[in-house]
Write a structure and sequence with these properties.
Layout: H1 2-11, E1 25-26, H2 28-31, E2 45-46, H3 57-74, E3 84-88, E4 91-99, H4 104-122, E5 126-133, E6 140-141
Parallel strand pairs: 2-3, 4-5
Antiparallel strand pairs: 1-6, 3-4
Length: 142
């Protein structure tokens, strides 16, 4: 019974980057398929809502999707990697990898704006950790 599941996982084409001539740069998240989650790569949303009989798992998933869309619009064209959302108690910690497309003053203003707005919206502390890099990180070429 395990063999057909493995075959289906290897045939799955969703969320995979096609192999080319070795000139396509990919990140670590893109290089590993979705069946490698929790083996080679981690989850992008870390919380205890998916444990057995834990209430509010669907609400957290919707909140995570909203936060991702909101921050994608707040930092237009600057996000280089998927956001990592972590919940610790009532606090929401967001880690983002940004390109150096925006000036530092504008970047800090947008960070404070996003933290204040999300904190008021969710009525819990929200902290955004930003890391800026000059170019997108390349894990390997496919």
């Amino acid at each position: 019974m395990a063999a057909p599941a493995v075959v289906r996982a290897l045939r799955a084409r969703a969320a995979r980057v096609r192999v080319g001539k070795g000139d396509k740069p990919v990140t670590y998240e893109q290089a590993h398929g979705p069946h490698h989650i929790a083996h080679r790569k981690g989850w992008l949303s870390l919380h205890t809502g998916n444990l057995y009989s834990e209430p509010g798992a669907a609400q957290r998933a919707v909140e995570d999707a909203f936060v991702r869309r909101f921050l994608r619009g707040t930092f237009p064209g600057a996000l280089l990697a998927p956001l990592v959302l972590r919940r610790r108690g009532r606090a929401l910690l967001v880690s983002a990898l940004l390109g150096r497309a925006l000036p530092p003053a504008q970047l800090l203003f947008l960070q404070g704006y996003a933290e204040a707005l999300l904190s008021a919206l969710y009525r819990s502390p929200v902290r955004i950790e930003l890391l800026t890099v000059p170019a997108p990180p390349v894990y390997k070429h496919l």
